[in-house]
Amino acid sequence: MEAKVLYTQTFENTAIQSINYLSNWSARNDVIDRLIAVQQRFENNVMNNPSIYPPCYELTTIGVYDIRQFSFDGFKLLYRIGDKNTIYALVILSDKQNLQNALIDHCIMFK
């Protein structure tokens, strides 16, 4: 049975932050195209095998094992496998971003 992917508000917020930040160095449309390519590759890869990617290493160091990480083209996309073949895309960040700092910043900005 094929899975379905749902994108959280946090995913949308972090995608917008990535677009705004990376647009300082690249054309905005190029950044958007890169993010769309990451999203499409992610969906194509997890639809038939949601567990294809390993748990996020940064989170396993603090005891969180149910969040998985897909990396592609300089981005990391964190996701969780839910019930009934539902995949929740949680966050998308640059590979260079520190995950803990990014999540703290997100909590402060979107409280």
UniProtKB/TrEMBL annotation:
- Name of the protein in its database record: Plasmid stabilization protein
The record lists the organism as: Vibrio jasicida
